[in-house]
Amino acid sequence: MPEPYQNSDQNSFAFTSATKRWPIILTQAIDAVFRAIPGPSDEVKTKEGRKIVEDLAKLKYELQHNRALPPLRDDGLPDIAHYNDALVALNEPKWMDSSWLFSECYLYRRIATYFTTTTKWNTFDVFLSSKLTTLRSSLPAILELAHRYSSVTSPSIFTDEASSLLFHEIFLICLWGNATDLSLLTTLSYDEIQSLQGSHARKESEKNILANDLDEIYTLLTSLKASGRQEIRVDIVLDNSGFELFVDLYLAGYLLSQGLATNIVLHPKNHPWFVSDVLPSDFAILLNALQDPVDFFITKNESEHETKHDLKTEDTEAIKGLFASLATFHAEGKLSIRTNKYWTLQDPFWTLPEQGELWEDLKSSELVIYKGDLNYRKLTGDPH
């Protein structure tokens, strides 16, 4: 088995991450906390916030000066020992001597401890502001899909050929939703985000797919439906929030409406992770945005910067119709979320059989979809 990518390899993404991406991310995190410190109105929160800023600045200094990775602060959660045991096994490595997969996971878990060990900041998402900005900038692509939702989810109106084409299109939409991974695109502008989304961009990107097994997946799910299977469960191990989470939910609504799945289980992260990864709270934010799109995309957007969008009555109705469908599936128990500490460990996914309850649960699924760059790297062990 090849060795995983090392941060010391100057020709690798790992080196770029350690020397360029991570310092930018930490600087943005420091700024986010500093702006959220309330001042004299809450002395405890102010004191804790200043300590978090100090810890983040220290972490940035250690990273940029290639210090050794110290043990994680114990916040009472069971994965801390897992990380600290790994540090011992690796002989207390320095940042540039570490593998990318381990060190970037360690980075975000260490950041999380700065918040989970406080009383006033323990639910604070340090990356929330950038998530909200990116979601608001995605309105044109959201509108395009929202207007199509009622037609693509209408059951039994397509020929077999049309159903297959639609299936492929919806999955490709879901695939390219990860074009707005904020941890990778740290300097992307508002307009550039929009250019990555939409049907023309998706069609242009199809030639970049290295392996495509959608035909086999379509055959599997349609065969299960035709056989009268009472339960067809599909799991999605999530990646990014914002537009990508929107298209993940769009896919879920399509599969449930067409009877290609009876249950969709979504797996988010437990901690703010890789800047834009999905947290349970991101579901509520997105669903609230779909329930009241004018408030989220127009009113609140105008308070932050000059809005470039407008919502017509038919736009609002299309978005609210999509929300009603997803809310119904959630209320009926057909669309659910499940968290697990495993998704924020540094381990490659071949250790899944060691996870007991999680492994047994996933074995009940007909199809498990892993989204995004990090999940792919964990599936393969990030080999060089």
Task: Give descriptors for this structure.
single chain, 384 residues, mainly alpha, Transcription Elongation Factor S-II, Chain A, 2 domains, 16 helices, 56% helix, globular, hydrolase, Sugar phosphate phosphatase, metal-binding, ARMT-1-like_metal-bd_sf, EC 3.1.3.-
Whole-number tally of structural domains: 2
Largest sheet: 4 strands, parallel
What ranges have pLDDT less than 50 throughout 5 or more consecutive residues? 180-188
- The N- and C-terminal alpha carbons lie at a distance of 9 Å
Beta-strand percentage range: under 5%
State the shape.
globular
Which structural class do you get from the secondary structure elements?
A: mainly alpha
Q: Strands across the major sheet, in which order?
A: 3-2-1-4
Mean pLDDT: 91
Estimate the helix proportion, in percent.
Answer: 55-70%
- The succession of helices and strands, N to C, reads HHHHHHHHHHEHEHHHEHEH
What's the topology here?
Blueprint lengths: L12 H24 L6 H22 L14 H11 L10 H17 L11 H10 L1 H14 L7 H17 L13 H6 L3 H7 L8 H13 L6 E5 L5 H15 L5 E5 L12 H12 L1 H12 L8 H19 L3 E3 L19 H6 L4 E4 L1 H9 L4
Parallel strand pairs: 1-2, 1-4, 2-3
Family: Belongs to the damage-control phosphatase family. Sugar phosphate phosphatase III subfamily.
Pfam family, one: ARMT1-like_dom
EC number: 3.1.3.-
